[in-house]
Amino acid sequence: MNEPVIVEAVRTPVGKRKGKLSGVRADELAAQPLKELVKRTNIEPGLIEDVIFGCVSQVGEQAFDIARVSALIADYPIEVPGTTLDRQCGSSQQAVHFAAQAIASGDMDVVVAGGIENMSRVPMFSNIQGVEFSDELTSRYEMINQGLSAERIAEKWGFSREQLDEFSLESHEKAINAQKEGRFDREIMPLEVTPPESNGSETMKNDEGPRANSSLEKLGSLKPSFDENGKIHPGNSSQISDGAVAVLLMSRKKAEQLGLKPRFRVLARSVVGSDPTLMLTGPIPATEKVLKKAGLAINDIDHFEVNEAFAPVPLAWLKETGADPEKLNPNGGAIALGHPLGASGGRLMTTMIHELERTGGRYGLQTMCEGHGMANATIIERLS
After folding, report:
1. With a threshold of 0.90, does the pTM exceed it?
2. pLDDT number for residue 200
3. Which of 2, 61, 80, 109 is 20 to 30 A off residue 197, Cα-Cα?
4. Where is the Thiolase C-terminal domain (predicted)?
5. What is the mean pLDDT of residues 164-178?
6. Distance from C-alpha of 70 to C-alpha of 53, rounded to nearest angstrom
7. Which residues are catalytic?
8. Are 334 and 311 in contact (CB under 8 A)?
């Protein structure tokens, strides 16, 4: 098989709901990292054999196969196709998997994977339009929302509200520190934007989500969102956000032929189904599965990115896997940085790539919980 490698990864800043990116059409936002990949690598875009994008709410500006539309907006040749997929929160991580699989099989040599979600302009659940779950489904499974699933995970693993809030505050503190140290500078492409109620444009260089003024006292004052006696509230949940990301993958042979440096190889991939009621525990078996595929142990991994859908999710993952918490989301996670659904998997991957290069780490493992009980996991290896 061919060896799939990552040559470049870039993302937009992540905007908060109704923030600086809310004035940018979703398809035009998705085109920005596609353009930046070409700019950074000087690759001829006609060499790209497919654009695979994750997007959860495929309606309005995010409909009509946004991967294809955005590739055209990015001035890719008309011969470059595009396809859009939905594996819930893991959609753009799955896009990376599909790209790597196409390369490994020999079907393709150059593929762009990524994702988009502008949740300010295309709200979550807008693609459902009031449709209820099938009676055939609800007769088999208890279908509840993710917030209630997070409540059940907190209860099952015995996490107090204070523990959840402490984890959330730490996410913000790590993100603020990473911003101050410039850790995101290489992975983020600056964008010219016109914020709402602004008199002119400005250059957006940073994620809007991290809050330097957060505190345990402020988090403790927030009302529960899903159960009046519960522990889950806006401060220990991921943020509704806007953003886009693109990752350039190639066969190692093709990258070297083009004079491009293979920065990481995609070592192993997994995807699992899990309890559709508890829903958010899939990263635990997905991690076990991907480690087995890679022939590695949890302690071999230098960097973990586990999506912070809700604080109990990474905390339960830590408890079950025995991973070193110091290696988990060292630059903060979705609680601070935001969670633009279809782009989050690629955002985690892009952050992990750049942080492994900054620290000199070898292996990175990324995993995400997904709606209806699923999870992807990916292990990448830095190449010298």
Report:
1. yes
2. 87
3. 61
4. 261-382
5. 98
6. 10
7. 89, 339, 369
8. no
